[in-house]
C-alpha cells in the first residue's frame, strides 16, 4: 500500500479528529472531582491535568491499585472502574495547567473520549484507524483484541514487585487500557513512527501542535501525547 493510499484510508476512517482541530483541545470534560478546576482535553494529552495516577500512587489507607491487581489477577477492570477507584482513594495533585506530571488516569480518560468521539470501543479504534491501515499486523490491545498475525516471538514479561509476570495471563491488566496496554513489535513500531513523522497519519500542522513541549523533569519533556528524552543532562556531571 502506497503512502498516499495509507493516508487516504486513515483520513477516511477518522470522521471526528479531536487533535486536528486546535479549538477542540480546549473542550472541557464533565466534572470528575466535585468542586475542582475544569479539566480540558489538552490537559489530558500533555499530562497537565493534575489528576492522580491510580497505577503508581498509593492511598493514605488501604491497598494500592498495583497491589490489588497483582493479588487478584483474574479480575477484569474497565477504564471507568479505574477512574472510580482513583476518585475514591486519591486526590488531585494540582490545578490543571500548572505543572506536568504523568497520570495513567488521564490516559484512560482519553481512551473513553476516543470511544465517545468515534462511537467505537478503543481497541477497535486502534485496529481500524492505525494498525490495519499501516499494516501493523502484530500489534493489538492485550486483554481486548488479537493481532492479525501472531508474532513468532513471545510477549515480553513484566517485572513488578519482585514478580515475573506474563501479561497475557493477568486479566487484571485490562486496567492499563489506554495508558499502556498495547502489545507490538519493533517492526510495527517503526511503521508507526515513519507514518507519524511523514504525515501519513495526521497533518503536519497537527504534529507541530503535538510538539508544544512542557518540561516534566530534567531531560524529559511532554507534548500532546508525545514524550521527548534529552540524554545530555543525564550524562553531565554535577
Pick out its properties.
mainly alpha; Beta-lactamase; three-stranded antiparallel β-sheet; single chain; 238 residues; 9 helices; two-stranded antiparallel ribbon; globular; disordered N terminus
What's the quick description here?
With 238 residues, the chain is mainly alpha-helical. 34% of the residues lie in helices and 8% in strands. It is built from nine helices and seven strands.
Polypeptide structure, described:
With 238 residues, this protein is mainly α. The protein has a single domain (3-235), classed as DD-peptidase/beta-lactamase superfamily (Beta-lactamase), CATH 3.40.710. Helix content is 34%, strand content 8%. The chain contains 9 helices and 7 strands, in the order ααααααββββααβββα. A 3-stranded antiparallel sheet has the order 5-6-7, with no helix packed on it. A two-stranded antiparallel sheet has the order 1-4. A hairpin with a 4-residue loop joins β6 (220-222) and β7 (227-229). It is globular and about 45 Å long. Residues 1-20 have low confidence and may be disordered.
Amino acid at each position: 500500500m502506497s503512502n498516499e493510499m495509507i493516508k487516504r484510508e486513515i483520513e477516511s476512517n477518522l470522521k471526528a479528529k479531536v487533535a486536528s482541530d486546535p479549538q477542540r483541545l480546549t473542550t472541557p470534560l464533565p466534572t470528575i472531582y466535585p468542586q475542582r478546576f475544569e479539566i480540558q482535553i489538552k490537559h489530558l494529552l500533555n499530562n497537565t491535568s493534575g489528576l492522580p495516577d491510580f497505577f503508581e500512587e498509593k492511598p493514605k489507607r488501604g491497598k494500592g491499585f498495583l497491589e490489588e491487581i497483582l493479588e487478584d489477577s483474574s479480575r477484569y477492570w474497565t477504564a471507568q472502574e479505574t477512574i472510580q477507584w482513583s476518585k475514591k482513594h486519591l486526590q488531585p495533585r494540582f490545578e490543571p495547567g500548572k505543572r506536568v506530571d504523568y497520570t495513567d488516569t488521564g490516559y484512560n480518560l482519553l481512551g473513553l473520549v476516543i470511544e465517545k468521539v468515534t462511537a467505537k470501543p478503543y481497541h477497535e479504534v486502534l485496529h481500524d484507524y492505525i494498525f490495519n491501515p499501516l499494516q501493523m499486523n502484530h500489534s493489538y490491545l492485550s486483554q481486548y483484541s488479537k493481532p492479525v498475525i501472531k508474532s513468532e516471538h513471545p510477549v515480553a514479561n513484566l517485572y513488578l514487585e519482585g514478580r515475573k509476570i506474563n501479561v497475557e495471563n493477568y486479566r487484571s491488566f485490562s486496567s492499563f487500557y489506554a495508558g499502556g496496554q498495547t502489545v507490538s513489535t519493533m517492526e510495527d513500531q517503526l511503521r508507526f513512527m515513519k507514518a507519524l513523522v511523514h504525515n501519513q497519519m495526521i497533518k503536519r500542522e497537527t504534529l507541530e501542535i503535538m510538539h508544544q513541549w512542557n518540561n516534566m523533569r530534567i531531560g524529559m519533556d511532554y507534548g500532546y501525547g508525545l514524550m521527548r528524552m534529552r540524554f545530555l543532562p543525564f550524562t553531565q556531571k554535577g
